[in-house]
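Narrative of accomplishments. A recurring question from our advisory board has been how the design workflow behaves on a single, concrete structure rather than in aggregate. To address it, we present the structure tokens for one chain from the evaluation set, followed by the sequence designed for it. No filtering or post-editing was applied between the two.
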């Protein structure tokens, strides 16, 4: 297999989050939390892991009179996701149809 799985992205919630972020420029933390159906603390841990890897950018801005957290997938994050998905597709190509 030419492409390798990315252990940072591979966790189901992080993979789902990266796929969600790949489809948009920026999304607020609450929207991601609701989509993944996880607590704020669980999502925060996943965001921190992706941020430390350089895959996600976190920004804060006031909106409707309160501070909101925004997430976006970085260029390295998009590249890592593309490589990870290619590895998954290569693995799936070896699975016989049933």
């Amino acid at each position: 297999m030419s492409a390798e799985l990315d252990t940072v992205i591979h966790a189901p919630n992080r993979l789902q989050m990266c796929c969600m972020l790949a489809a948009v420029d920026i999304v607020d933390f609450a929207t991601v939390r609701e989509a993944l159906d996880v607590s704020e603390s669980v999502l925060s841990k996943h965001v921190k892991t992706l941020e430390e890897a350089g895959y996600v950018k976190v920004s804060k801005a006031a909106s409707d009179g309160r501070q909101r957290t925004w997430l976006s997938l970085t260029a390295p994050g998009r590249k890592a996701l593309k490589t990870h998905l290619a590895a998954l597709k290569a693995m799936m190509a070896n699975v016989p149809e049933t």
